Amino acid sequence: xxxxxxxxxxxxxxxxxxxVSEPSASARFVSDIFGLQRVAGQDGEIAFxxxxxxxxxxxxxxxxxxASVGIEVWDDRALEEIGRQLRELGFTAKEATTSECRCRYxxxxxxxxxxxxxxxxxxxxxxxxxxxxxxxxDAGIVEFHGVGIRTTDHLRDLSFWRALGAEVSDWVGDIAxxxxxxxxxxxxxxxxxxxxxxxxxxxxxxxxxxxxxxYFMQESQIRIVQGPGHEPASSxxxxxxxxxxxxxxxxxxxxxxxxxxxxxxxQFPLTAxxxxxxxxxxxxxxxxxxxxx
Amino acid sequence: xxxxxxxxxVRLGSPDLESAESFATACLGLQIAERGKKDLYLRSDERAxxxxxxxxxxxxxxxxxxxxxxxxxxxxxxxxxxxxxAVHAGSAPEAEQRKVTAFIGFRDPTGNHVExxxxxxxxxxxxxxxxDAGxxGFSHIGLNSTDPARDERFWTQVCNARVSDRIGDIPLMRVNxxxxxxxxxxxxxxxxxxxxxxxxxxxDVLRSYYxxxxxxxxxxxxxxxxxxxxxxxxxxxxxxxxxxxxxxxxDEIEDEATHRPRQFGFEPTSFCMWGSKPxxxxxxxx
Lengths: 293, 286
Known about the structure:
The complex is a heterodimer of chains A (about 290) and B (about 290). Helix content of chain A is about 20%, strand content about 35%. Chain A has about 290 residues and is α/β, with parallel strands linked by helices. The interface of A and B includes residues 207, 211 and 214 of A.
């Protein structure tokens, strides 16, 4: 992950910016139902916190500079190095303007796109908050954990992430779990017919909160896309729930920590039990299902 | 005082041993120890059997508890008789049927059929499950009570049970370090309300939830977590309406001398802290 450097190139998935059709309806889902803390936004965006970061989710009306996933980069030197590598591989990497940095709450950034057309912001010094996180309901959220991303060109997209220093921890069919720190994965690439964010995952304290949230969603008549379930490759428990515009937010807990030793990625077959060994299945989201994508 | 060491077995009458066997193996996941003409013996742990189905009336339900030795058994018999309980001294063939060296039978104040047994058999071969449910052993029962306060006195004053926690006036009682071995359940008549088997991990509880759902086994409560014992649980219905429970992570009472029973209100969250609601199964007080 360090590409021979003393420090890693990237360190975390630090935010998701989402473009939605009705920001206020989506905002109600994100705070009242899912349980993130709504904070003051700017430029018409609605912002949320999930941990000690200044904001990890923002909602904006569908627009050109709409959706993106923020990846924290170690420093400006690492940012330059990544920019060089991405351009060599033929990806676009554009330096963010001051106003683009401001609306992302970061000091500097490269705005890039993977081969599928997913916008990935590589950012330096994302803002933290001095105040502790205070959620609107007791969902047990600990931190923004990671993302699932749809890919239409998984080989090229993989080379994009490898240029950032990510490594494949395991495969389920062609689904790639990507490691960027000590955990099994923070990013998962799901082959799909289209691009876009598949889910944003938030870590909760324990199995208790996965299950409490599952019953809470049933009572609130919110669609559970899949779960409660358990990924055998990462030993992570999950509950994927769906908000407006088909947005999937997930509660997760228990992901395996790896010891940092060189490790061969394992291949699992694309079957239901490779995606969930408890027995949950996704009926309507093809990327999360073993059949038909 | 009658010193109960542990719960030993449950005996259930059933008009249809074939369905009982297919449920016990394909759904519940127990191992067949022995198949007689009129009896089906099932294992769940290192013991030779912990559940026995006998051809007969499903209202015939018996729970067996182990006591130390024959002297304790004789002492228990005279204690019970002096309190006016009719005591049945088990014959040799009856003891053989139960795979114990000696036993007595009696009824608790509600009328539940209880047996006290000496030296229940263990098996030399390890337990090998019929399906991978993760069962580690038979652990406790829910026992009907027409008067929980009276029956609590019987189990704690005539016998050695101690109350670990109460939900409303329903006591969860232990006879060893495990949080509870007998959970009283308010009901109009005698009977066993549920039979608990422990499983290895919470993964097993969730896996069985999806597995049993797929096989159309009625899930009556859970997956959930009891705030009292801390156990993650799943209740489901077997043959003749008997309810079985899988659970994992039952607390042990660390300090016998200083433990004080906690009082929980009689409300759904006292039975499940995750938010599951019983369906097709009465909560103990209703």
